[in-house]
Amino acid sequence: MKTAKRIGCIVLAIVYGIVLFVTLLCAALLIADTAVDATARTLPSYPREDISALLEKEQWTDADYETLYRQTGVGRTALDEMKNDPQRILSFQDALFYDGELDHEIVAFTTKRDIFADSHYTAPMVDLQDGDVLLTSTCHTFGWRNGHSAIVVDGALGSTLESVSLGIPSELRTYGSDWFRYGTNFLVLRLKGASAEERAQIAATAAERLYKVPYSLTVGFLSPKDQGETPRETHCSHLVWQAFYYFGYDIDSDGGPLCSTHDIAQSDLFEVVQVFGFDPVALW
Fold it and tell me: Model's pTM, two decimal places?
C-alpha cells in the first residue's frame, strides 16, 4: 500500500513538474513575443527637417543626396527618377516619420506579422525593377524576427516570386510588393554594378527554376545550400539567395549554411533603393 502511495506521489510530482514547465515556457514565449514589438518599426534617430528648398534645386550635391536619403529613406537612384515630382518625394518623408499604432496579424500557426492599426495605411514604394529584392523583419515567431524575402520578377506590376510557408510551394504573386507595403517595415535592395538586363535575367531565371519548389527550413543543413538548376526545396531567403547564386553572386553576408533575411540585408552587394520602418543609418 505504501509503495502504491509512493508511486502515486511520484507520478503526481512529475505531472505537476510538467505542468509547471509548460506554464513557464508559455510565459517566457509570451514575454518574448511581446518584447519583440519594440523592434516592429524604428523611426529615424534624428528629427524631421524641411527639405522643400532642397527639392527646388536644379542639381543635388552628394551632401544633398545624403540629406534627402536620411529624410525620405530613398536612395540616390530612385531620387533621380523622382526629381521632377517633389510632392512624391515628400510623401516618402511622411512615411519615414510615420508613427502609427502597432497591430498584428497571424500569418502562420506560430508566426505573427507587424502591421499598423490603421488598416488603410500603406507606405509608398519606389518604382521597382526586375531583380529587385524586397525584405521585411515584420514576421516573427516567439520573439525571433525571421522576417520575409522576395525577388521582384515584374517591376511594372510589382510581381514577386516567394517561398511563403510550410506546405506551400514557392509562388508567383501578382502585385506581391503590396504585401510588403502593408507591413510596418521593408527594404528595397538592388544589385550594385549590374545592368538592368542582367538583373532582369536573374529574375527570369528565378521564375523559371524556383517556381513551385517545396518549402523547407532545413535546406543548407539536411540538404545542400546550392540546390542547382532543379531545386528540391527552399524557403524565402534561400530562394532569393539561390536566384543570385546562379549568376555567381553570393548575397549571404556571413556565408553560413543558413541564409536568413537579415543576412541578405547585411550584404554589401546591394544598394539600398528604399528603406521604410528601419533607421536609414543603422538599417536592420
Answer: 0.89
